[in-house]
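FORM 12-B: Structure-to-Sequence Request
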């Protein structure tokens, strides 16, 4: 119980990083029985379906090999050419079988765990030569399962062979009444079909081994709580990672904020150190919104965008500082600053009307009233 409380037992599911690291090392769930069964099933099926063609091809090659003209026996070049011709003929009817076997050898591992190549897995490990490690593996659960699988395969194959021998006993007796070639062809058909049945019986072993291999692999990759904490510290917890994440977040936030500056009604400035962009929906019922704000370099960017898009700027240092320190972006102006902001917006709307009708432009408000509770913000400089 104390061990479990200390987080030393591997009770947690593996993280994505743990699984990726294991795959890079070539540590993937594999089933030898599945690979063996796939190769045997494909090979036996190919022999059953194309065995007659292969047998007839081999028979033809053997007949021609033993029927050589007397004049060619003492000609080395003719003998070599004849051997080359027979080899080409043999490759012609054996190549499909070999190609199918190659595909089967690759399909088995890919079907379970996918394709993975790891140079680290191919490197020699001297720990595997340690006698103590080998002795420990002898009494592991995996060794017991391998023993049970071997016994199961032996019993299955022996039982299937006994049943097939009883089923084809009459066919075996008929071989003595057939010609040599007919007996060989019929025997090859029976052997191919028997081989298919024997290989199919091993599917039961594979059906047991595949789930066990997956369970064993997941169990090996399980982590303790401390390992998960250490992994989080090594990835997300590293200062450079946190700094990079914060930088990206700030850049994204600033990008979205700058997109709102051209839509603002007014920019309240310090005039150099602070800039706050306000937008007011006259048809709505809410208060003016702070759509962007910044100091120093960001404030200069806001002013430049405002100038490029014709947004009105009003210099009011106390109000700019009060808004900057007491509000957040996409937040309504606090109630205490309603009157001060209303004075600025009133000037902006009057300026728009005067510009449209070519009247005399109004003067910007000079003394914007800041409530006492916001004076601490209005007097701040940083």
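FORM 12-B RESPONSE
SEQUENCE OUT:
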């Amino acid at each position: 119980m104390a061990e479990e409380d200390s987080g030393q037992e591997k009770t947690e599911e593996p993280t994505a990083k743990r699984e990726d690291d294991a795959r890079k090392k070539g540590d993937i769930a594999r089933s030898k029985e599945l690979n063996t069964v796939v190769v045997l099933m494909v090979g036996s099926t190919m022999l059953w379906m194309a065995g007659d063609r292969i047998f007839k091809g081999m028979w033809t090659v053997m007949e021609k090999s033993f029927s050589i003209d007397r004049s060619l026996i003492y000609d080395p070049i003719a003998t070599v050419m004849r051997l080359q011709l027979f080899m080409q003929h043999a490759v012609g009817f054996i190549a499909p079988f070999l190609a199918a076997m190659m595909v089967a050898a690759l399909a088995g591992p890919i079907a379970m765990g996918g394709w993975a190549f790891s140079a680290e897995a191919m490197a020699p490990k001297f720990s595997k030569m340690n006698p103590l490690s080998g002795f420990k593996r002898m009494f592991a659960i995996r060794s017991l399962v391998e023993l049970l699988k071997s016994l199961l395969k032996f019993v299955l194959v022996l039982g299937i062979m006994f049943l097939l021998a009883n089923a084809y006993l009459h066919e075996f007796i008929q071989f003595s009444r057939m010609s040599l070639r007919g007996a060989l062809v019929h025997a090859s058909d029976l052997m191919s079909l028997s081989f298919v049945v024997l290989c199919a019986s091993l599917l039961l072993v594979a059906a047991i081994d595949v789930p066990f291999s997956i369970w064993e692999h997941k169990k090996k990759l399980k982590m303790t709580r401390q390992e998960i904490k250490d992994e989080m510290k090594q990835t997300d917890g590293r200062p450079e990672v946190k700094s990079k994440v914060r930088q990206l977040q700030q850049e994204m936030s600033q990008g979205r904020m700058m997109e709102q500056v051209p839509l603002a009604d007014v920019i309240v400035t310090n005039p150099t150190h602070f800039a706050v962009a306000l937008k007011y929906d006259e048809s709505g019922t809410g208060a003016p919104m702070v759509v962007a704000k910044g100091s120093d370099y960001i404030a200069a960017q806001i002013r430049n965008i405002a100038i490029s898009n014709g947004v009105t700027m009003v210099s009011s240092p106390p109000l700019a500082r009060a808004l900057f320190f007491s509000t957040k972006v996409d937040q309504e102006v606090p109630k205490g600053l309603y009157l001060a902001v209303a004075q600025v917006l009133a000037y902006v709307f009057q300026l728009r009307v005067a510009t449209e009708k070519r009247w005399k432009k109004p003067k910007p408000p000079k003394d914007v009233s800041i409530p006492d509770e916001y004076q601490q913000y209005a007097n701040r400089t940083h």
